[in-house]
């Protein structure tokens, strides 16, 4: 049967390899002058096969079964050809054969997707983002092990209920390294990472439908904290008996006056310290998280911290701009610093970055567009959250002013009319 000028189907039996007068039944696909043969895994009696018509002759039960098989096979092969054409894929005798046998549609699993994603993004994502993905992937494997009693799951089996089940599982799961329940926003982040991997699978046609179509992640907006000028000063004035606390305090204050994250501070070297067009010192680097360029003119307090450690063995040995320390130790030492400063806010380098955006810059009239560039944000809307924080601070300051004014005694007012009794003026008399 010829369906187009480049595609034809022919059924034949291999008479050269007879066994008990039965020959193997084959179908030949010809496409663009190239052909392939597929065994139909069926034997046909040689004496009932009609080669010219490519079918079994007669009305015997065997002949009817053979002809029915030929009709079904012809229909399936033609459908494979049509599907490949509609999908815009390369049409060849080999591709039609693979589609017919199901060899072009591997039953990909979640592990296949994880391995493909990690290999594809090994040099694209930074190591910290990859580490977050590894954590998510570990939780996913734990989920299917406990809820599905298996070590892997086919991607085509992952539906909306799988996603909802994952959310429920994470809400009640206590990781060994964490020893407490995972927070709501952290759960949403894990689900977002799975969604990105599933979207990748959809784009490379490993799955035909997206199980996330109906799922709407709900990120709870948290109020971003920051330090006041008074709190910054309290930390700056601390004196420590050990160098370890002094170093972490200096790194924290440096972040408060530059907005540079802890991870990016640890990567700074003398090469990142440059003289700007204004003749002043600038930090020029890229954010490790987004690779966005960052150019920051240094304020005097940040400059003094750099000068303090310029010839320190802790910077010379690593060729770094500031002393290096692990994130774990830095966070532990910040707890001690917080206690000594008697500040009722958890000190983190995220807080220092927020402090730069609010107390140091925005509260002093630096425009949001400039702050966005200084922080290395990809979008201005990411920076706009700080405007709301400062608005709240302004509101609180105005409330204090109102309370102060309300506490002051009101003056007595005497009214004095002129002879016509029309115009008048006020005389204020303090109580």
From TrEMBL:
InterPro entries in the cross-refs: Arm-DNA-bind_5, DNA_brk_join_enz, Integrase-like_cat_sf, Integrase_catalytic, Integrase_recombinase_N, SAM-like_dom, Tyrosine_recombinase_XerCD
GO biological process terms held by the UniProt record: DNA integration; DNA recombination
One Pfam family named in its UniProt record: Phage_int_SAM_5
Molecular-function annotations in GO: DNA binding
Residue ranges of domain Tyr recombinase in the record: 222-399
Keyword set, alphabetical order: DNA recombination, DNA-binding
Protein's UniProt keywords contain Iron: no
PROSITE patterns reported in the protein's UniProt record: TYR_RECOMBINASE
Family assignment from sequence similarity: Belongs to the 'phage' integrase family.
Protein name: Site-specific recombinase XerD
Lineage, highest ranks first: Bacteria, Pseudomonadati, Bacteroidota, Flavobacteriia, Flavobacteriales
């Amino acid at each position: 049967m010829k369906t187009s000028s480049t595609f034809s189907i022919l059924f034949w039996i291999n008479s050269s390899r007879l066994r008990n007068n039965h020959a193997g039944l084959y179908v030949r696909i010809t496409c663009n002058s190239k052909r392939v043969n597929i065994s139909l895994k069926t034997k046909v009696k040689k004496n009932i096969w009609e080669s010219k018509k490519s079918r079994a002759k007669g009305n015997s039960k065997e002949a009817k079964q053979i002809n029915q098989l030929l009709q079904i096979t012809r229909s399936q092969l033609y459908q494979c050809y049509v599907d490949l054409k509609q999908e815009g894929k390369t049409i060849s005798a080999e591709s039609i054969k693979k589609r017919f046998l199901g060899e072009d549609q591997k039953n990909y699993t979640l592990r296949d997707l994880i391995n493909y994603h990690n290999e594809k993004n090994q040099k694209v994502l930074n190591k910290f983002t990859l580490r977050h993905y590894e954590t998510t992937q570990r939780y996913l494997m734990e989920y299917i092990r406990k809820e599905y009693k298996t070590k892997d799951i086919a991607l085509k089996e992952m539906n909306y209920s799988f996603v909802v089940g994952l959310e429920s599982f994470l809400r009640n799961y206590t990781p060994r390294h964490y020893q407490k329940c995972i927070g709501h926003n952290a759960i949403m982040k894990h689900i977002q990472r799975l969604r990105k991997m599933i979207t990748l699978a959809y784009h490379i046609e490993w799955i035909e439908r997206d199980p996330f179509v109906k799922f709407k992640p709900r990120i709870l907006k948290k109020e971003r904290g920051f330090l006041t000028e008074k709190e910054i000063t309290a930390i700056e004035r601390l004196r420590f008996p050990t160098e370890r606390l002094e170093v972490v305090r200096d790194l924290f204050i440096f972040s408060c006056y530059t907005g540079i994250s802890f991870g990016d501070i640890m990567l700074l070297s003398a090469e990142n310290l440059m003289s700007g067009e204004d003749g002043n010192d600038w930090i020029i680097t890229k954010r490790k998280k987004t690779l966005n360029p960052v150019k920051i003119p240094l304020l005097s307090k940040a400059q003094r911290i750099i000068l303090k450690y310029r010839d320190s063995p802790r910077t010379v040995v690593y060729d770094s701009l500031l002393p290096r320390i692990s994130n774990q130790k830095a966070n532990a030492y910040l707890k001690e610093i917080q206690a000594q400063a008697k500040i009722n806010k958890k000190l983190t380098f995220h807080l220092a970055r927020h402090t730069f955006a609010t107390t140091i810059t925005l509260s002093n009239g630096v425009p949001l567009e400039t702050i966005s560039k200084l922080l290395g944000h990809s979008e201005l809307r990411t920076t706009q959250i700080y405007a709301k924080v400062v608005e709240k601070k302004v509101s609180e300051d105005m409330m204090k002013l109102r309370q102060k004014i309300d506490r002051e005694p009101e003056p007595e007012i005497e009214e004095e009319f002129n002879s016509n009794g029309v115009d008048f003026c006020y005389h204020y008399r303090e109580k």
